[in-house]
Design a protein that fits this description.
Keywords: Chromosome, DNA damage, DNA recombination, DNA repair, Endonuclease, Exonuclease, Hydrolase, Nuclease, Nucleus, Telomere. It is found in: Chromosome, Telomere; Nucleus. It is an enzyme of class 3 (hydrolase). GO terms for molecular function: 5'-3' DNA exonuclease activity; beta-lactamase activity; damaged DNA binding; endonuclease activity. This protein has 420 residues and is α/β, with parallel strands linked by helices. It folds into two domains: 186 residues, Ribonuclease Z/Hydroxyacylglutathione hydrolase-like (Metallo-beta-lactamase, Chain A), CATH 3.60.15; 124 residues, Rossmann fold, CATH 3.40.50. Helix content is 30%, strand content 19%. It has twelve helices and 17 strands. A six-stranded mixed β-sheet has the order 5-6-7-8-9-17, with helices on one face. A five-stranded mixed β-sheet has the order 13-10-14-16-15, sandwiched between helices. Strand 3, helix 2 and strand 4 form a beta-alpha-beta unit. Helix 4 packs across helix 5. The termini are close together. The C terminus is likely disordered. The chain binds a DNA duplex (10 and 13 nucleotides) through helix 12.
DNA sequence: GCGATCAGCT
DNA sequence: CACAGCTGATCGC
């Protein structure tokens, strides 16, 4: 697509319409209450959170996009001046409340931008139905894919299984206070399931309660500590030290539902990092520290982590790509630990064969993963090179060490690529 | 002094 | 390594 038309999760000047997939801060960096650059398209749920997230935001610039239905708008080509018709549709991305993928089509072709997404939806699912019928009518030319865990070493349970694991840990500590680390948006489904399974309310901090109410959860959450022994607290607000302090007053354990990768190592030993054992334990049989179920890790007497991710695991990414069968695709996350262009693993699924240079050899060691990552990173992101040039001009060339450090950071910062 | 960006931590 | 996102330091106006 020509540049100067639209931006997705990017907020630089020069686009005629801006699309926001979800409200996590790494996708909203640059948005503020002073926004005036143009219309901003998002889901209804995201829109409902806008006033509290960005006080002062001119709500007349928000455009609510209903799920699963085509909308269109007219843009002006910056080069030719002619009118460009853009059709777009939002599809539930199952990442966090309000998160959507966007499908765009027009004379330029058909693009699907997933934003962050998790493809572990079970049972009747509107997103899948919508997607299947949309791609049947409009085959996808380019898939912009959430490739956070696009590597077979990333394998972890569905969120439903993970939520059961959290409930199991709580039930096996009937006399403990429990604190669960969460962020400002996300993991609500886990808390709901825990609440339902254990028939308890869950404490959240006041701002988070307001968010819960905006999301339509009225009765499950409370800010009254006397009503429940389970508290969901800001993830950054507790540590082993906090827990040790709390345990001087009352027996307390912490549970960290973490997106941090649990690597599935190449299988050549016994029980090595395997995650999907399917052995869901009942509350009464949760084993001692040495024999925890797959997906649970106890790294301190008071601290558990449960592998809970709002991004698709490798297997789910594969299923998704196989369903969409795009002509080509591109990863939108360039900083994950074992980043590999999705084409490396899933290129063969695409309808047109891919240029072979990315597919040289399968990386099996950390070093080789790094090599593939760097190759694809430096090979195709002009924007980042320009940024680096600008930065170097500004800062001057200082010591080798400093430059080296900076370039590492740029890889980290340059997280989301764009499609404008 | 203030907002934006960077660095570090979990 | 790194999810998402905080705090505190520094930069630029």
């Amino acid at each position: 697509m020509e540049s100067g038309l639209i931006s997705v999760d990017r907020w630089r000047k020069g686009s005629q319409a801006y699309f926001l997939t979800h409200l996590h801060s790494d996708h909203t960096r640059g948005l503020s209450g002073e926004w005036s650059q143009g219309p901003l398209y998002c889901s209804r749920t995201t829109a409902s959170l806008f006033p509290s997230r960005f006080p002062g935001f001119d709500l007349s610039l928000l455009r609510v996009v209903p799920l699963s239905s085509w909308r269109s708008l007219s843009l002006r080509s910056p080069s030719s001046g002619s009118s460009v018709r853009l059709h777009f549709m939002a599809i539930d991305a199952h990442h966090c409340p309000g998160s959507v993928m966007f499908m765009f089509r027009g004379d330029f072709g058909c693009f699907l931008y997933t934003g962050d997404f998790r493809w572990d939806c079970e049972g009747e699912d509107g997103a899948r139905t919508t997607l299947v019928s949309a791609i049947k009518e409009f085959p996808v030319d380019i898939l912009y894919l959430d490739n956070t865990y696009c590597n077979p070493i990333y394998s972890f349970p569905s969120r439903q299984v993970a939520a059961h694991l959290v409930a199991d840990i709580i039930a096996s500590h009937p006399c403990h206070d429990i604190i669960i680390g969460i962020d400002s948006l996300g993991k609500e489904d886990m808390l709901l399931l825990v609440s339902r399974l254990l028939n308890i309310k869950i404490w959240v901090w006041p701002e988070r309660l307001r968010t819960m109410h905006l999301l339509g959860y009225q009765d499950i959450f409370t800010t009254d500590t006397s009503l429940t022994r389970v508290r969901a607290v800001p993830r950054y607000s507790f540590s082993i030290q906090t827990l040790e302090g709390l345990n001087m007053m009352c027996p307390t354990i912490g549970i960290m539902p973490s997106g941090l990768p649990w690597l599935k190592r190449p299988s050549n030993g016994v029980g090595d990092g395997k995650l999907l054992s399917g052995s869901l334990l009942t509350a009464s049989t949760l084993p001692c520290r040495k024999q925890l179920p797959a997906g649970v890790h106890q790294f301190h007497d008071y601290m558990y982590s449960v592998h809970y991710s709002d991004h698709s695991c490798y297997e789910e990414i594969g299923e998704f790509v196989n369903l969409v069968k795009p002509k080509s695709m591109k990863g939108i996350v360039v900083s994950s630990a074992c980043y590999v262009e999705p084409l490396y693993y899933f290129g063969r699924i695409c309808r047109v064969s891919q240029p072979p240079e990315l597919l040289l050899l399968r990386p099996d060691t950390a070093e080789q993963f790094r090599a593939v990552r760097i190759k694809s990173f430096s090979g195709n992101d002009e924007t980042i090179d320009k940024e680096r040039e600008k930065r170097l001009k500004r800062d001057g060339y200082s010591s080798f060490k400093r430059n080296k450090k900076r370039s590492r950071i740029q890889v980290k910062r340059a997280k989301i690529s764009e499609i404008d």
